[in-house]
Each structure stands twice: as C-alpha cells, then as structure tokens.
Amino acid sequence: MFMHNKELLQPVKVERPNPTYAAMLTEQLGGPQGEMKAAMQYMAQSFRIKDPAIKDLFMDIAAEELSHMEMVATTVNLLNGHDVDAPAVAAGHIESHVLMGLNPALSNASGYLWTAAYVNVTGDLPADLLSNIASEQRAKVVYEYLHRQIEDKYVRQTIDFLLNREEAHNTLFRQAFNRVQGTSSTQDWGVDENARLYFDLSTPGKYFDIKDPQPPVFRTPDPGARQPQ
Amino acid sequence: MFMHNKELLQPVKVERPNPTYAAMLTEQLGGPQGEMKAAMQYMAQSFRIKDPAIKDLFMDIAAEELSHMEMVATTVNLLNGHDVDAPAVAAGHIESHVLMGLNPALSNASGYLWTAAYVNVTGDLPADLLSNIASEQRAKVVYEYLHRQIEDKYVRQTIDFLLNREEAHNTLFRQAFNRVQGTSSTQDWGVDENARLYFDLSTPGKYFDIKDPQPPVFRTPDPGARQPQ
Amino acid sequence: MFMHNKELLQPVKVERPNPTYAAMLTEQLGGPQGEMKAAMQYMAQSFRIKDPAIKDLFMDIAAEELSHMEMVATTVNLLNGHDVDAPAVAAGHIESHVLMGLNPALSNASGYLWTAAYVNVTGDLPADLLSNIASEQRAKVVYEYLHRQIEDKYVRQTIDFLLNREEAHNTLFRQAFNRVQGTSSTQDWGVDENARLYFDLSTPGKYFDIKDPQPPVFRTPDPGARQPQ
Amino acid sequence: MFMHNKELLQPVKVERPNPTYAAMLTEQLGGPQGEMKAAMQYMAQSFRIKDPAIKDLFMDIAAEELSHMEMVATTVNLLNGHDVDAPAVAAGHIESHVLMGLNPALSNASGYLWTAAYVNVTGDLPADLLSNIASEQRAKVVYEYLHRQIEDKYVRQTIDFLLNREEAHNTLFRQAFNRVQGTSSTQDWGVDENARLYFDLSTPGKYFDIKDPQPPVFRTPDPGARQPQ
Amino acid sequence: MFMHNKELLQPVKVERPNPTYAAMLTEQLGGPQGEMKAAMQYMAQSFRIKDPAIKDLFMDIAAEELSHMEMVATTVNLLNGHDVDAPAVAAGHIESHVLMGLNPALSNASGYLWTAAYVNVTGDLPADLLSNIASEQRAKVVYEYLHRQIEDKYVRQTIDFLLNREEAHNTLFRQAFNRVQGTSSTQDWGVDENARLYFDLSTPGKYFDIKDPQPPVFRTPDPGARQPQ
Amino acid sequence: MFMHNKELLQPVKVERPNPTYAAMLTEQLGGPQGEMKAAMQYMAQSFRIKDPAIKDLFMDIAAEELSHMEMVATTVNLLNGHDVDAPAVAAGHIESHVLMGLNPALSNASGYLWTAAYVNVTGDLPADLLSNIASEQRAKVVYEYLHRQIEDKYVRQTIDFLLNREEAHNTLFRQAFNRVQGTSSTQDWGVDENARLYFDLSTPGKYFDIKDPQPPVFRTPDPGARQPQ
C-alpha cells in the first residue's frame, strides 16, 4: 500500500513564472524518460518478483519516482504562472493554457499524452534490470538537456537533485543486475553458431566482430557498497 | 540508401498453418520488443552519429533487423493459412482475418498498433547503447516465451536463429559501449552528495546502499574480438 | 512524497489460476475506469489545488487508488498461473503470455495500453469533482460486470471490497462538491437566453424542456458526516 | 439516420484571420472536452438505451454537438487565413499549415489526434448520465479559458453561444439523471461496511468522514421544467 | 447542421445473438476502414471546400456514413445478446462484456480504439478524392471478408447493403475526381526528369518503366450519369 | 533481405540551420503522408503478394522510401543545428531539443508519434494499389506545402527531388492497377440495385447521380511505358 506526505521529498521553488520552460519541463513529467514512466515501470515489474532484496529495491525506487513526479509537477505548476495565456508559450504544448487552467499535463513537452507503450516489463529479472539501467541513463541525459536551457537557479537546483538521483538509481540497479547475473536470460549465451555471426549489411565499413561472446555483466558498480544478503 | 534482395536473410517455412500462433508471433513483428522497433530505433539513433565505427555498427544491425522483420512477417503469413476465419484464432488479435486478408499486421499479438513510443533516442551515445543492449536482452526473452509455446519445428528453427542473433547484437553493442565509456553521460558520475543517498521508502526492508558509485562499464563482452580502430 | 508498505491495503488471494479471468480483470488495472486512471487523475488534479481540505481528500484517495492498483495487479498475477500459455486465454489480451512472463499489463482487458487520454483535469474545482464522481460511478459499474463473470470466492471478495470503496469515494467527492458549489464554473448559470433553448434535432420525440436552469448541486450525500472546516 | 443542412445551427464569422487562435480553438474541435467527443459519446451511449425519453434526449444533443463541431471547424477554418505559414502560429499545433492546406484538424490544440479513449460508455444509465454532466461542465470551463484569450468579437459570440449550450445540456442531463435515480448502479448504496471507511493515507490532514452514505441525486435542476412522461 | 431521425437508413435485424461476430463486425464501426472513419474523413475534408457540387457530395456521403455507423452499431448491439459473458467471445475484443454493458465499442475488432490517425485530409481536392476512392474500395473489401464469416441471413443482408453503398460512393467520388482533373496537385505532372526515373532497388526483377507519365484520370466511372453543372 | 549503403540515394545539404523548419520538415519523416509511412505500407502489403511484377514494384518502391526517409532525416538533422534550444523553434514540436539531443523524431511536425494506424493493408491488390496511388498524391501535396515555406535553396532541391519521385511512384502504381483491373474487389461492380442509389441527405443541393456504375480504371498512366510481362 501507498501513503503520501504533503511535504515534498525535496522542496522546490522558482525564481519567476516561465510558461515556455513549464512546457519544456513537462517532458520529465509525462514523457518517455520522465518520472511517471519510471515509477510505473518499476512498480509494474515488481508485481511478480520473488527475490525480496530486488523487490524492495524496485519499490523503494518506484516510490521515489512518484515523489519526483510530484516535484516536477509542482515546479511546472509554479512556472505556469497565474493567467492562461497560450501565446506566452514560445515553444511546446499549450494544453495547460487551453484545457487545464494552468495545471501540469501528463504529456511530453510537445503534448503527446503519456502512454504505457513507454513501459518495458518482461518478467525476466536481468532483462528488466537492463531496461531500468538504460532508463536511468536516458533520464539523466534529458535532465542535462533541460539544465542547459534554463537560467532560473531554483529550477536548476531541482534538476540537479533529480539528475543525481538518476545516477544513484542507475548504480543500484547495476548492483542488483550483478546479483542475478548468470540466471534467466543471461544463461546459455552464445551456444549456437548464429550468436557468433556478423552480417556486414551496411557498406562500406566493418569495424566489429564476434569470437567468444559473453553475457552482460557490469564492472563493480560500487566498490564500497555492502552486498545484499 | 537501402537495397533489397528477395532472398530472405535466412529461409523460413512452417509445418502447417496455425492462425493462433500467427497472432502470437505477431508480437515480434509489431510489438515493443519486436523487429520493427529494433530496426527503427537503431536507424533513428544513427542519423546524428559521427563515430564511423559505431554508425556502421548501428546500420549493419538496423538493416539486419529489417531483414528479420521480413522473416517474421513471412512466417506469420504462412501460419495465417488460406482462408479468413477469425474464430480459428484461439487467442490474440484477429485483424488478419477481418481487415487484412490474411496479411500480417504491424501490431503486437493483441492488436495494439506499432507506435514510435517504443523507440528510444537520446542522442547520447552511452545512453543509446544501453537502450539497445536492454532492447536486445528483452527481444531474446520474448523469443524464449514464444519458443515454449510452439511445436512446429520449422518455426522453432526460425525463432532459434532470431534469438541467437539478438545475443550477437547484444554482445556487439556492449563492445561499442565500452569503446565510448567515460564520455558524455558517463562522465562526472556521483560527484554530488545526492548521487549517494538511499531513500528507503518501501517498508520493511533495505538491502542495498551506495558508497562509491561508478558509471556503467561492462566486463569484456567478447575476449576474442578485435578492437575497432 | 510517497511511501510504500509491502502489506497490501487489503490482502488478496485466489482459489485457483484462471488466465482468462486474469485478462478480464486487467480492465481495472489499466483500463479507462481502472485504478491507475483514478490514481493519476486525482493526483494530477491536486497539483494546483489551494483548498487544504480538498487537496487532502484528493491525495488520500489518490494514494488509496495506487494501493488498489497494487491489489488488482497482485490478483491478476495470481490468476495468470505458472506457465506462459496464450491459448489458455479464452478471451482478451495475451500480452502476459507472449511479452511479459505472466506479469500483469498496464492495459485494458483487450490489450489497449493505458493512456493519459483517460485522465480529465480542468483546474476548475467543481468540474474536476464532477469528473471524479462520474469516474467512481463508472468504476463501480465495471466491478459489477466483473463480479458477475467469476465464481472464485476470493476474487469476489476483493471485487466487493473495491466496489464498496468506489462508493465511499463517490460519496466523499459529492460532499466536497457541495462545499464548492456556487464557485468557479457553477457561477452565473443560465444567464443567457441560449442556456434555455432546446433544439429538438432527433425526431420523433421531445420529452424535456428548460425553463429555469440551476447549476449542479447534489442532495446531501451523507447526512451524518461532519462538515469539513 | 442523419441528415445535414448546409446552414449552420448558428452562423459564425471572424473579424480577421488569426492562425494562433485557430490552433487554440482546435481544442474544442478534437480535444477531450470538445464537440466531436461529446457527439460521439452521446451517440455511442444511445445505441443500447431502451427508455424513449432518454434515448431521444441523447440523440437530440448528439445531433446538436455534431452541429457545434461544424461551427467550431468553420470558425477554425476562417481563422486559419489564406496562406500556409506555420511560423505564424505562435503556439500550438501546425498541422493545418504543413499537412492539411489550412483545413482544421481533428486534434487538440497541441496536435494530439482525437481518440476514442476520450469516450466513456458503460451501458449503465446513471453512470453514463454522470459522465455527460461532468463532460458538459468541463466543456464550459474550456470555453471560458478560450474566451479569455481572444479579442475577436465574432469569435467571442460563437464561444458564448456554445458555452451556454453546454449549460443547457448539463441541466437537461441532470433532469434525466434524477428521472433514473435509484436504478442500476445507484441502488444498494453503502450496504457494506467498506463503503463507510475513510483511509487517511495522505498526511497531515483529515477533513471528511462518512457516516450514512447516500447515492447521487441532484437538487432539482430546473424547477420550471415539465416532467418527461 | 445535423438532424437525426430514429428510423434507420435501412432496418437491421439478426437471426440470433452471436457475441463473437459482434466483436468481428465492430471492425466496421470503429476500425480504419469503418463507417466512423468514413463519416469523419468526408466531413473533415468538406470544411474548406468551395465548389458547391463537391461540397454537397461530401456532405451527402458523410451523413450517409453516419447513418451506416448507426446501422452497424445497432447490429453489433443485437449480436451482443443479453448477458455480459466475455468468454463467449471466441475471438476479438471483449470490452462490450467487461467495460460497456454490451454496448458496441468505438474500436476495431481487436479493441484498438478509433483514432483520427485514420483520417486523411490534405485540402487538395484531387488528393482528397483519391483518398476517398481508396477508402471506399477498402471498405468494400472488409465487408467481403466479414460476409464470408457469417451465416446469419439478416446480417448478410445488412452487409450486402453496406457493401453496395461503398461501390456507389466510389463511383460518385470518381465522377467528382474527373471533374477536377488537371487542377491542383494533378497539374504539372512529370515536368522534371526525376519523375521519370526508376530505381530498381529490389533484386532480382524489374518489370515496369516510365517514359511519358500522365496525372491520374479515371475512365468514365458512369457513362449514364449526367454531368454536374 | 535489406542492405544499406552509406551514400544517400541523392545527397542533401542545407544553407544554414533552421530549427523551426527542422520541426516542420519532420512531417515527412514521421507524419501520415511521410516517408516512413510509405515504406512501411508498401513493405507490409508485399508480404502476401504472389504476382512477381507487382511484388517487385512494391519492394523497389519500399526500399526507395526507406532511402527517402534517410534523406529527410539527414536534412532535419542538419537543420536542427548545433545546440539544444527549444525556444528557437518558432512553431512545431520541440522533442529534438528536450529529449533527443537534436536527433530527428519519428513523429509529425507537431510531435504526434508515428503510428501503424497510418498504414493501410487489405490484402486485396486493387484496393491496396488505390491506397498507394492516393498516398503518393497526398505526399506530393505535403511537399508542395513545405516547399512554399522555405527559402533555403538546398532544402528546396531535396524537396523537389522527393516530390517528383512521388509522381513517379504514383504513375507506376497506376500502371500496376490497370494490370489487375477486373480482378478481386473490382469484379462484380454495381450488380445490386443499392449500388445505384443516391441518398440526398445534405440539403440543399444534389449534383451527381448514378446510372451505370463502372469499377475503377485509370486512363493510360504512361503511354510510352512497356507492359510488364
């Protein structure tokens, strides 16, 4: 079960309203690399997990991503300002101004509505962990792009916080991945000849080859971390 | 530019029509872990890549995934049989029977139409490579699920081939990832205190912690492979 | 911020696996009248609300709907059984069997993926409350349909619980609505002649007319409840 | 069956072209609270209704909403002006300029294409009527937002007309709701203990409670209206 | 403006309920070649048309397609029977049974919700007419597939009627096309060398070439028809 | 199988970056009349075709459309410039700046993600060819709109090339159509009285009638072309 506390995980504020940046930041509320996606993906993956350490990790992070979602939405709300005024949005979606009375939208920055097509669940622990590691890396990248396009120091602080949290999650998911390496879809790697072929279909150029393929394992993600039992 | 050869990358056949399995296998034609998604993701990522080795790798694999898409579609077409008969589909979508005259559909097994929401492109090479490694792992998993649910030996051979190719791509993408490690979004990892926090938001239980976070690096994916120049 | 407890809001179990009913019950996980929609709608509406009583009500219920989402997903997971077997699904989507390793899907019963198009937010408190009252009524109806189509006594208990909770939410949202009646979009009702016209465009028949239109107000939803301050 | 008359339900004109406002007004053509949605929802709900008074009301209003759709589209078309010129759209979608030769789009103001995910049909008369009352309230709100953002006096007249018509429909749907109160999903309200619980999951704060829950009934929506037979 | 008459354009009935065929026939209610699509496409195209003969033709047919939509929906409703029972649907979507109380759905046969992505509007009369001719041809094909899969003689009569109406519309749209030939996008055909190249990109085989390309014109679609003034 | 050559089908360049036009041109990368749609439609239709001449034509053109897709994407990439800067996009989607690090998007100009709902496949050769002829005509129209809104001479050259190629494809598809006339869905035209009715449902006005309907045939699309064997 979920509980909510009206205090934010980390307080947010803005120097001043900025309806254009409100639209841009919406990307991380309802876009493919955004907080809602992260929360829903980890929650959806957790429903069948047996391993208590990994189930706990997924729900710790899912609850945190819901809390990030709230931080991003609160920031967008502050940036939206006080009056509906669609032409004040220099670029990006205008739904907050014509549809929602300045509420933040569950969409990306251009107004494409959030869809569960963003969520990857396979029920295979190594594959789901790789999905999550990639998701966290992408989320970091999007926060970097957003960071470069805003001067507001409070918004930058919020983005900094969120970006660093994605790194933390990324590190943790790699620890979890290494814990399950050699199981499920990482077993029996490259046993068949076809796993060692290279089809050089784009010409010119061939730069890689395969000889002795190994399943995915990360180098120690955190040398100082204790091993989960 | 693209060219096409009417020979398949690998020939396909089926023991007998099987409209239910045709619907099921459609998952890998137009689903989120399917061949069309893979082809479009790698192609879309390649448009801005400068590094010639990685650009070549992406287009080699994109062209191969288009060729896989053709193999899967040809197999679905054979499985669909000779007469439109929707009730012969025991489970899954029926569009081949009511809409498409037994053609394969660009949808998942339940009829959800392919969407570019499946495609992840960030323009950051490490992030895009992690996306691709995760995609290939998920595609392998889906082929395993499909393999378990069919007796047809020719279909099994085709699935075996495709599954092994996903392993090959996975291995290659990891080689490429390690080539770019330490650049772009893998730089400056964990410099901020927030990257070392653990919010224990799901109770009871806390199994992981962070002390000295490192950016993602894979253990050597293929000890025998030569290094791209 | 959100916290999670691994205990469910109400424990769930099933008499036996039932993959067909698993697909059917998915409707209330990821369908338009389902728990994810309810949670996301109330959370999204809350981001701009000033009135502390109503903001609290929305977040109390949003957190509960997230907890319902977990109950429904856990039930679907149990019903999915132990082996991927798409043809065992007599009707409805088969993604749990071909894509997700028996995990529950964020879709409706027929596999249409959850979309934020289901979520209504206007930023006008009376309008948003009417949306929520209607949502709760519809959710009750869907649970009634699902109740009629299952014999499993534990699943029935879970549905009974959830159905009754929708009634509770409905009652509470009406209390909140009456608290804000006469404000925002319920002001200035019927001041213009056009609000009193009836266009009898479907023939034959005309059964209703308008003389003295009044804005929406509910009869006391709960005579025993104390008034929020 | 439907018939069409080339005269609009109410004539429309504009003071001058305004491509930005054309995009904004598109919200009420193809958005979630727009005219197409209303027409399709009431029509789709009517297909199974037996009660002749209510079926007639739904089709009277569905036909009117189709006529509103035509009025909105005609206005958007006039506002689009005479030359394709995407950069003249200061905010919102640009499909009229790059795709449609200045035709209005079946999308919201930001270009999200109309989807039947906006349409709620349950086949339960009280629930469907509550959906419609909420829809009409939301449509009024959106017209208010749009009214505030345009100076063109003719466009304002059209919006005024449409806004008032939503009030009329809202009043009529409440009359119809009260006619069916106590039937279907409004029966047996609060018989179970669970319908009287309050989960105080968001802290701090608890402002509402439930003691003696009643099903939804509106106060007399129109004291002067005659009762349908 | 639109008006509605409760008499259907053509009466419909069914021999007996058939929930599976109800799902199948839904294809022509809310699928890409269905009646809703046709109605919305012709209506959306008409909003900017100046030529009175063509505008009248589009609205005559749009109103008829709305009337077909009503016929199809009424038939689906009859086929759905009297009790919600999802497993009675042998193939196709089950939303009528779990969500809608046996109402017909605005989706295709597999439950994919209607989307305006099906609608083609370019604002160029020859292009829009070609779209409509193709749409009518496809609709005929889908009715043929559906006809082959049902024994119910009344349903067959309805399908026969609708199929023949698509032929009529097809013929009329071709008459209209030939009336506008040589205008807009059919002007200046093949003036550039690039319009006469053939890229033989799929090997082996080359069967066609281009020497003296002409814009599209249909052979007289109806030798007996009078010419519109 | 598909192969790729890193040389473009036709080289592209731009005079200077133009982020607004980059967004606009995205319409033909991932919009409903764009190159990805064309490639996927012809490929998807080809999977069941027996006639070798027509199968070859479809794959020749599908491979070319993939190559066009690459040309359009490369041009968008050049137009996007060198720095993420969403407000520099005066109109249209901003995903390249907030999500994708200046990569082109698989969406239309307003950010609606590519969907297989754009793709028409019926498995009936005459119907599919009519779809393709209409698609090519619409693609030409969109290129004309885009041509009018850009001064950049290199971009104009690219658009000219692509526009002329659509004419070539259109001509070829008509040759193919006439080759299959009288088969499949073009047989038995107008045998039933209902194919000769005209419902004059939009008043005032009736300009067309039907007396002796004929199936679709094009006047010779290319008098100089040799007949395929």
Task: Characterise this structure.
- The structure is a homohexamer of 229-residue chains.
- With 229 residues, chain A is mainly α.
- Chain A has seven helices and two strands.
- Chains in contact: A-B, A-C, A-D, A-F, B-C, B-E, B-F, C-D, C-E, D-E, D-F, E-F.
- At the C-D interface, helix 4, helix 6 and helix 7 of C face helix 4, helix 6 and helix 7 of D.
- Strand 1 (2-5) of chain D pairs parallel with strand 2 of chain F, so a sheet runs across the interface.
Key features?
globular; homohexamer; 229 residues; Mn_catalase_dom (chains A, B, C, D, E, F); mainly alpha; Ferritin-like_SF (chains A, B, C, D, E, F); Manganese catalase family protein (chains A, B, C, D, E, F); Ferritin-like (chains A, B, C, D, E, F); 2 strands; 47% helix
| Morphology call of chain A | globular
Query: Uncertain regions of chain A: pLDDT < 50 for 5+ in a row?
Result: none
What is the CA-CA span between the terminal residues of chain A?
A: 25 Å
Mean pLDDT figure of chain A: 97
Biggest sheet of chain A: strands, sense, closure? none
The number of distinct β-strands of chain A equals: 2
- Oligomeric state: homohexamer
Count the DSSP helices of chain A.
7
Largest interface: C-D, 84 and 83 residues
